[in-house]
Amino acid sequence: MLFIAKVAGAALIIAFASWLSGQNPKLAGFIIALPLVSLIAIAFSYYEHNDIEKTILFTKSILVAVPISYLFFLPFFFAKSLNMNFLMIYGAGLGLLIIGFFIHKYITNFL
Length: 111
Fold this sequence. Notes:
Mean pLDDT: 92
Structural class: mainly alpha
Number of strands: 0
Strand content: under 5%
Largest sheet: none
Number of helices: 7
Low-confidence stretches: none
Distance between the termini: 33 Å
Radius of gyration: 17 Å
Shape: flat
């Protein structure tokens, strides 16, 4: 039951931000930029596993991942100057995220 509640909560946040992006894109961007998902996931992780060491490691991993995840947005920033369509921009962002995953994996080996 807890799993279903977690999925429903995350789905509601995503659906709301998606809807809001059509009404007020700047506000939707701000809401998505908030670490809401991280806050919720960290609390659920500790509640579910009751292991502070794993929760701290999880949080450190998030801290490393956040700046790396910005790689996804780079193609969107340069899209007009490179004259890219949406699928090219999105695909390039996903490609950079894959590279970012391996960077994250390397860095977190030292935590």
